[in-house]
RNA sequence: GCCGCCAUCGUCUAGGGGCCUAGGACAUCGCCCUUUCAAGGCGAAAACACGGGUUCGAAUCCCGUUGGCGGUACCA
């Protein structure tokens, strides 16, 4: 395998700007990017926007945004330019036309005047006969006169002929796949495929090859779905007399049902993960581990380390199911590694969007929010979880979990709550710290020979509305005397049944 | 139908003929820590799809079967 590649590595990712970028595409982009960065090569972004109906500049912008968010930067592309532009297929139309004409002139391609109806009929007939469909080639053998007549007829319908590639017979089309080894296909199984539409827009299998040749792509790394396209592309390289780049196909990423990832079986788009509070560094790490194993086997890998050790040799060939639970775990690990200031900065947008925090909090308020989120740092797995986890710090009126109230705020806790309240009322604002609080309440517990949980749990429920929270004294300390006392009074008045 | 790709614990995977009584991670379960929840520590359960070969020896090589996926477009 591995044709001796001389010169710098040039790889590309070529999404169609027809929607948000799919996780599978970003995974492929990541592997290309890693390969380029590891090899000191060039990573190119190109848009395959020949589907004029669905392509839109707004999707291009979104693709830029998602790629940047994940930290995948490109060296050449529609926005930054480069020596082999333009980087949008819609701006390269003359190029494809030129190459198509060349193929016709040299007998590698021919005009086809068949209508969709005629082709459909051929297809149906083949199916009925239990045969694999292949185009009949009736347009290949037309005389000049017949061609003129056919074209005239087509024009009447406002149509123009398409250009088909003439697939040679009896050839074995083969390449040494970078990650699967040798793959062969008989050219006889391939039908003469259309390379240009009547309107002058190229088709995928032709356009990619022209682009890859002219952009001097050295390595094509793409999803396994393209394996069956490769033989046709090989034919185009051959006809154009161009050198075939190294080609490798990585496995797809699947949803939990083993099907292509979609809204039905998980989130399919990069933006979904950002919105749900996944950190780009976590998603990057996780995605890298889908299909690739670091040599040291460690799961948590820094970006630099991944680049340094990335190797196509360690990329597997089977498809991988996207395991959200593992991503969540990994995201939790990354959240715990954040500094307090970073954590705050990352959580703030979620709190603001939820209406818990104002647009521009004062420095003092910011500092306080920092203390709030720090309490949840080792408890949340995604940034979005910070909202439900810390709600009660921000709201004036909190929601009490009925089950918690019923289970914990029983008549027998009343005396403890009352005693605790009066103790807390004796603390001055400046003395309201974790240490003081702990000393005071622990003192009460010991004095009366109680178990800590008997006193602490009722306070927790009274003050947070729930049975689970960060350590009680930290929670009380951050909550502040006012909210704590008020909620305890409220609980005593409305929630704890009389003894 | 035809062509092609893939196949190790539930999931991601290590493994490239003897080092495998098949290793790690997530998830699960148990124990410890503990004011709750987490985090952390320790431990358990859990896989080579099946059938033939090749070989002294196969998870590893070959063939077949089964299953999954992809293609079979004037989509990309």
Describe the structure in your own words:
This protein is mainly α. It contains 20 helices and eleven strands. Strands 3-4-7 form a three-stranded antiparallel beta sheet. Strands 1-2 form a two-stranded parallel ribbon. It has a two-stranded antiparallel ribbon with strand order 5-6. Strand 5 and strand 6 (181-186) form a beta hairpin. Helix 12 (340-353) packs across helix 13 and helix 13 runs antiparallel to helix 19. It starts with 9 loop residues before the first strand and ends with a helix.
Secondary structure layout plus pairing:
Elements: E1 10-13, H1 23-39, E2 42-45, H2 57-70, H3 93-105, E3 109-112, H4 116-128, H5 144-156, E4 162-165, E5 172-177, E6 181-186, E7 194-196, H6 204-214, E8 219-223, H7 230-240, E9 246-250, E10 253-254, H8 270-275, H9 280-288, H10 303-309, E11 320-321, H11 324-337, H12 340-353, H13 363-376, H14 386-394, H15 402-408, H16 414-425, H17 434-447, H18 452-464, H19 472-479, H20 481-495
Parallel strand pairs: 1-2, 8-9, 10-11
Antiparallel strand pairs: 3-4, 4-7, 5-6
Helix pairs in contact: 1-10, 6-7, 9-11, 12-13, 13-19, 16-17, 16-20, 17-19, 18-20
The protein binds one RNA strand of 76 nucleotides through helix 4, strand 6, helix 6, strand 11 and helix 11.
Descriptive tags:
single chain, about 500 residues, mainly alpha, Rossmann fold, Glutamyl-tRNA Synthetase, domain 3, Helicase, Ruva Protein, domain 3, 4 domains, three-stranded antiparallel β-sheet, two-stranded parallel sheet, about 45% helix, about 10% strand, RNA-binding
